[in-house]
Design a protein that fits this description.
heterotrimer, B: mainly alpha, two-stranded antiparallel sheet, 8% strand, flat, C: alpha/beta, Amidase signature (AS) enzymes, eleven-stranded mixed beta sheet, 18 helices, 11 strands, glutaminyl-tRNA synthase (glutamine-hydrolyzing) activity (chain A), nucleotide-binding (chain A), EC 6.3.5.- (chain A)
Chain lengths: 499, 89, 513
């Protein structure tokens, strides 16, 4: 059923959107939050369980020290109040993928209290997102739905449960209601999620791969007529797992709610979900008594004590935060604001940094990663990291160019062959016999031949019109099978014209 | 009875009637706790005051899949079988 | 060769002495107990599962050890023991006396079971209890009714009626129980045995099926105070798999018990009579035995003072909020997904996972368990939490404070363990509140996490055993062992032997071969 939507531009003119994000970040610890079961990606189903993570009778939880330290790191990065005493509580509800039928989370005493995160938007504006809390909790298992279409829950006749993920530590970062975003609400949410992703990667506390479910967000949206009005009723769209999905969810919800409110309707307080295929959110469950989670302090666990000294120890070894790092690299590389933004948007910062570390010039590294390689990645629908080429190969190609062993054309061919899996740049150059013809005699002859064949061009060049130079270079390239150095060709042509 | 739903027990009507009267009696007798539970009294969650021991992040050998599934009412392809699940949390 | 009936009537300490003197083997002990189990079970029904062959193998493993190896082991090595079926045993079916767990064979051992195995104590089997330890008569077991060895028409108390009856009927010299509101001590009182609830956190709960996590504690069941002390030192101590486990090691309980037994000198010890835990509501025969025992303590030099714990009258209320709240959450995992029972809904009901869980739990849990789950769900639900759970936690603080003040005036506190002697089957089954009153004197210790024990104080006018309760300060379990052992010795002197000399044991007749 198609829902009535208001035009976005009209909706944000008539209403003030307030958004909230609850971001789940799966931590990359070796073991689970409450037991020493190993964690890996893609293990056989139900092979990463101890009696604790399987919820066997008699088993008891014991807190993983690394998970607590990871939470403190994230708390520091988000400028949170790190609470000296925090407590785990049980969130009680029944679901087949929950081995104990309660989740162990933190309720009124979270490890990380209030904080904030400054996020930079595309045009360089900085927006401060207020953080309510960042608490520690454990994940549930995974259901696979059988018998329905496309493994979806609708129409499935039964489900298969793999509890491997049960007990994997999560941090849930809860923002306060984000006000004042106006028509930029979707953009701010997207920038915030990317900033969180960059931070947890910099901290090395999560793999932060959205497509693998390492990060997912519940998106709250409500509208009000005027910023001075109280908050409107909100919808909560659960488990959105792509940056674009989050932006579009917010856009869609603003349009949907605006249409309802404009018609004098009421917004239901409900959970919805984002449907990637139809690019819309669909209604789920209306909030009900079933949401009475009956939180109480987990009597199997005792108070978590984080001393200020311990927090200081962690603060001392905190890595540079992504925003500071970006500013530093921008200076070091002498990139303009626009150039830097292009790098960030292309998700190429790490790759360029590594390529530069391996000896390439910043502009050289940028040229490859934002040019050829971005096009290749887009065409294949993969990330730059997933391309079969790494920083070392790009740096090698750059060095070969600098050493005059490859020209632009050959370099491009070399890169294509690396992408085709033919080996390292050095191996490819060797195998295909690539070399730049700089032997003066051969080049002189080829240039002369090209000039002789194009007298009209020679005339123009002599007259100071340099435009047709390309035609000569092209002819020389063809004659030398692409091995000529374009700069050397130009030089010889100019000498010959003058001479 | 809504409590039966929350507790996931398909109580019979007879049970609900009986339990309501029993629970009322019990509830009345335990309401007295509110008499002394004044604001100035801190709550106690755990009788012996302890700080959490934090376990090193070192994996142990997990249970074999066969041990994990040994007591399962129904399994398929190394997984537990759940009847139809309605509504995703 | 010792007469078999005499052998099984020995205390665990005496059995251990005979093992060390090589008068008997561990296999002799296990075989003798298995014979008694065979003979007694038709009338007593203390065991849900007897693990005879495994116990004999464990006995042989002990018997095969060298003298040097045996010397390294605890004193009770080679002595068999029975385990309440609330404690997880690898390879032995563990049910918590519930249909919902019927047939479950755990893939792991509780910490206490690992310790017993390391001490080479053969495990005879699993004993009956009220379903998920919820009850005070063992009548709420889904499988069978356990009889009191003193009168097979009466209950053995609960929830640990199976362990107490097994030890009382000489089917085992020792057993383990779990005590959440009196489940070790009250059956001890009703069967004339010794039962100890250690300090909360003194014995690891890892592998004890959770009833109410902040109250549950595993403890010894025996026929003598010294046997319990020896057993508690074996099972106690820090366990990193239990976050509520106390980091310090077990207290010197055996030394305290031996001191009490050998010297019977209580000079300088102040014994606090808890005003709120006797008098009204306690049977006259129970009161009489209790006060006679207090006189004995005085005669051995103890100074008796009366102490008041004004908030104890709120203990039952707080207990019946906290306990069911934790029960409702701890028992959520029995949902028909991973182990135990699964019941699909009737045909006219949608065959969904949620309905499967609801029908499984309806069929798998008994009345009392359901009652407590519903009560706990109510107490934790939105809008009631502060008034109920929040208030109960505050009462807990007040009770801890009462104990603190009482222990400023006395070294150890005393009371009758249970208001009455063993009652008849069915007598209190229809009146939950009357059943709950059984635990009025035992509950405060659970709420405060302090150690407490029950020892036999004699027989009431009805010829049934009466229990005498000692309560000590947190993490000072040894403090109660000394007066308990001294009192036991003084009373046995009066009785010309242990209390069970008055017990008729028809199941032992004709056992001697």
């Amino acid at each position: 059923m198609a829902e009535k939507l208001m035009k976005y531009s009209e909706a944000v003119k008539k209403f003030d959107p307030v958004i909230g994000l609850e971001t789940h970040v799966e931590l990359s610890t070796n073991t689970k939050l409450f037991c020493p079961a190993p964690i890996s990606f893609g293990a056989e189903p139900n092979t990463e369980l101890t009696p604790v993570s399987l919820g066997l009778p008699g088993s008891l939880p014991v807190v993983n020290a690394a998970a607590v330290d990871y939470a403190i790191k994230l708390g520091l990065a988000l400028h949170c109040q790190i609470n000296e005493w925090s407590q785990f509580a049980r969130k009680n509800y029944f679901y087949p993928d929950m081995p104990r039928d309660y989740q162990i989370s933190q309720y009124d005493k979270p490890t990380n209290g209030e904080g904030y995160l400054d996020v930079e938007l595309e045009d360089g504006t900085v927006f401060r997102v207020p953080i309510e809390r960042a608490h520690i909790e454990d994940d549930a298992g995974k259901n696979t739905h059988v018998g329905g279409a496309d493994g979806r829950i609708e129409g499935a006749d039964h489900s298969l449960v793999d509890y491997n993920r049960a007990g994997v530590p999560l941090i849930e970062i809860v923002t306060k209601p984000i006000e004042g975003a106006g028509d930029r609400a979707p953009e701010i949410a997207g920038a915030y999620m990317r900033a969180i992703r960059d931070i947890v990667r910099a901290l090395n506390i999560s793999h932060a791969r959205m497509e693998q479910g390492n990060m997912r967000a519940d998106v709250n949206v409500s509208l009000r007529r005027d910023p001075s009005d109280p908050f409107g009723t909100r919808s909560e769209t659960k488990n959105v797992n792509s940056f674009r999905g989050i932006e579009r969810t917010i856009q869609y919800e603003i349009r949907r709610q605006a249409a309802i409110l404009e018609d004098g309707g009421e917004i239901l307080q409900e959970t919805r979900h984002w449907d990637e295929a139809s690019q819309s959110t669909a209604g789920g469950r209306v909030k009900s008594d079933a949401d009475d989670y009956r939180y109480f302090p987990d009597p199997d666990l005792v108070m978590l004590h984080i001393t200020p000294e311990h927090v200081e120890e962690i603060r001392k070894v905190m890595p540079e935060m992504p925003r500071e790092r970006r500013n530093r690299l921008k200076g070091e590389w002498k990139f303009s604001d626009t150039e830097m933004r292009d790098v960030i948007n292309a998700d190429a910062l790490d790759l360029i940094e590594e390529t530069v570390k391996l000896g390439a010039t910043p502009s050289g590294a940028k040229k490859w990663w934002l040019g050829e390689l971005s096009r290749e990645a887009n065409a294949k629908g993969v990330s730059l990291e997933e391309l079969p080429i790494d920083a070392q190969a790009v740096a090698d190609v750059e060095r070969l160019i600098a050493d005059g062993k490859l020209n632009d054309k050959l370099a491009k061919q070399t890169v294509s062959l690396v992408l085709a899996g033919e080996g390292s740049p050095a191996e490819i150059v060797e195998k295909h016999g690539f070399k730049v013809v700089s032997d003066d005699g051969a080049l002189q002859a080829a240039v002369q031949e090209a000039l002789d064949a194009n007298p009209d061009v020679v005339e123009k060049l002599k007259g100071g019109n340099m435009k047709p130079m390309g035609a000569i270079i092209g002819a020389v390239m063809r004659a030398t099978k692409g091995q000529a150095d374009a700069k050397a060709v130009t030089k010889i042509v100019l000498e010959k014209i003058k001479g | 009875m809504h409590l039966g739903d929350l507790a996931r027990i398909a109580l019979t009507d007879e049970e609900i009637t009986r339990m309501q009267s029993e629970l009322n009696v019990i509830a009345e007798s335990i309401n007295s706790v509110q008499e002394v539970a004044t604001d100035d009294v801190p709550p106690t969650a755990n009788p012996v005051p302890l700080e959490a021991y934090l376990r090193p992040d070192v994996p142990v050998k997990p249970l074999d899949q066969s041990e994990v599934l040994a007591a399962a009412p129904a399994t398929e392809d190394g997984m537990f079988v759940a009847p139809q699940i309605l509504g995703e949390e | 060769m010792t007469d078999q009936n005499e052998l099984v009537k020995l205390s665990a300490t005496e059995m251990a002495a005979k093992l060390r003197a090589k008068e008997i083997s561990s296999r002799d002990l296990v075989a003798a107990e298995l014979d008694v189990i065979d003979a007694a079970e038709p009338s007593i029904k203390a065991f849900l599962k007897v693990a005879g062959e495994a116990a004999l193998e464990q006995a042989d493993a002990f018997d095969d050890l060298s003298d040097d190896e045996k010397a390294e082991l605890p004193e009770l090595a080679g002595v068999p023991i029975a385990i309440k079926d609330m404690i997880v045993t690898k390879g032995i079916e563990t049910t918590a006396a519930s249909r919902i767990l019927e047939g479950w064979v755990p893939p792991y051992d509780a910490t206490v079971i690992e310790k017993l195995k390391a001490a080479h104590m053969p495990i005879l089997g699993k004993t009956n209890l009220d379903e998920f330890a919820q009850g005070s008569s063992t009548e709420h077991s889904a499988f069978q009714r356990t009889s009191n060895p003193w009168d097979v028409e009466r209950v053995p108390g609960g929830s640990g009626g199976g362990s107490a009856a097994a030890v009382g009927a000489f089917e085992a010299p020792l057993a383990l129980g779990t005590d959440t509101g009196g489940s070790i001590r009250q059956p001890g009182a009703l069967t004339g045995t010794v039962g100890v609830k250690p300090t909360y956190g003194g014995v690891s709960r890892f592998g004890a099926i959770a009833m109410a996590s902040s109250l549950d504690q595993i403890g010894p069941v025996s026929r003598t105070v010294l046997d319990s002390a020896l057993l508690q030192e074996i099972i106690g101590g820090h366990d990193r798999r239990d976050s509520t486990s106390i980091p310090e090691g077990p207290r010197p309980m055996v030394a305290a018990a031996r001191d009490g037994l050998n010297n019977r000198d209580l000079k300088g010890m102040k014994v606090g009579l808890v005003k709120e835990l006797n008098g009204d509501g306690f049977q006259p025969g129970v009161e009489a035995r209790f006060h006679e025992a207090v006189k004995k303590l005085e005669a051995m030099g103890a100074e008796v003072v009366e102490v008041s714990c004004p908030h104890f009258k709120y203990a039952l209320g707080a207990y019946y909020i906290i306990m069911p709240s934790e029960v409702s959450s701890n028992l959520a995992r029995y949902d028909g997904m991973r182990y135990g029972l699964r019941v699909m809904p009737p045909e006219d009901v949608p065959q969904t996972a949620a309905n499967m869980m609801a029908y499984t739990r309806e069929a798998g849990f008994g009345d009392e368990v359901k009652r407590r789950i519903i009560l706990g769900t109510y107490a934790l639900s939105a809008g009631y939490y502060d008034a109920w759970y929040g208030s109960a936690q505050k009462v807990r603080t007040l009770i801890i404070d009462d104990f603190r003040k009482a222990f400023e005036q006395a070294d150890v506190l005393v009371s009758p363990t249970s208001p009455s002697t063993a009652f008849k089957f069915g007598e209190k089954m229809d009146d939950p509140l009357a059943m709950y009153m059984n635990d009025i004197a035992t509950i405060p210790a659970n709420l405060a996490g302090v150690p407490a024990m029950s020892i036999p104080a004699g027989l009431s006018d009805d010829g049934l055993p009466v229990g005498f309760q000692f309560i000590a300060p947190q993490q000072r379990d040894e403090v109660m062992y000394k007066p308990a052992a001294a009192l036991e010795a003084a009373l046995e002197e009066d009785w010309n032997g242990p209390i069970w000399r008055s017990l008729r044991t028809p199941w032992l007749d004709g056992l001697n071969k």
